[in-house]
Write a structure and sequence with these properties.
Blueprint: E1 7-10, E2 13-16, E3 23-25, H1 36-39, E4 42-45, E5 50-60, E6 63-73, E7 75-77, H2 118-128, E8 134-136, E9 139-151, E10 161-173, E11 194-201
Antiparallel strand pairs: 1-4, 2-3, 5-6, 6-9, 7-8, 9-10, 10-11
């Protein structure tokens, strides 16, 4: 009550137990059992903290340059969620290579396991629903860029002629390791980078 609609209620990840190699979570009510009803209490607001853009235009004689930068401060789901549990026969991101191997190991990810290991499967399923899979997905993107030149009428005598080159989604600065930080979900490809050129005759 009183929270935005797209919050995530999550377990609080404490890390990987160095002895068992499994993810561990905070027992919110202290009953010794990790359950969704009693321990999934961390509220994660997935809405952007702030967002905006910078639009400007420069002109020099017959040359013009227009650009738009877009920026967003936000969180997103870790790109590792696009893959299966580590240990299953499937492709995996390099981030899970830092995993537990033997007692005493300090690692960011639990042991590799198969579905017959019920304890590892349960710990992984709780990990997917924890605050450990929410990462910084803030970004700055050069969204639009346009460069144009108006040909002098001494050269083009039939009116005006403007030559231009335009581009969209040119590059993105972000700490996010997935395909695209913009979408608060998984399975999306980045927006296409588009270049175009042309003549505008009047």
């Amino acid at each position: 009550i009183g929270q935005p609609l797209n919050i995530r209620k999550a377990y609080h990840l404490l890390g990987v137990n160095p002895e068992t190699g499994l993810y561990t979570f905070e027992d919110m009510n202290g009953d010794g059992i990790i359950s969704a009803t009693d321990d999934r209490k961390v509220v994660l607001d997935m809405n952007p903290k702030y967002f905006g853009g910078l639009l400007n235009q420069f002109r020099y004689k017959r040359w013009s340059l227009d650009f738009l930068f877009q920026f967003v401060k936000q969180k997103n789901l870790s790109p590792e969620l696009m893959f299966s549990m580590p240990g299953i026969i499937s492709n995996q991101p390099t981030i899970v290579s830092d995993h537990w191997l033997e007692p005493g190991d300090i690692a960011s990810h639990q042991m590799y396991a198969v579905t017959s290991n019920s304890a590892a499967v349960a710990a992984y399923n709780q990990y997917v629903e924890s605050d450990g899979v929410v990462v910084d997905a803030s970004y700055i993107r050069l969204k639009n860029l346009s460069f144009a030149y108006e040909i002098p009428q001494s050269v083009f005598k039939f009116g005006t002629c403007r030559v231009f080159v335009e581009a969209q989604n040119i590059f993105t600065f972000t700490p996010y390791k997935g395909n695209d930080p913009e979408f608060i979900s998984i399975g999306y490809l980045p927006p296409m980078k588009v270049w175009s050129t042309g003549l505008q005759l009047t």
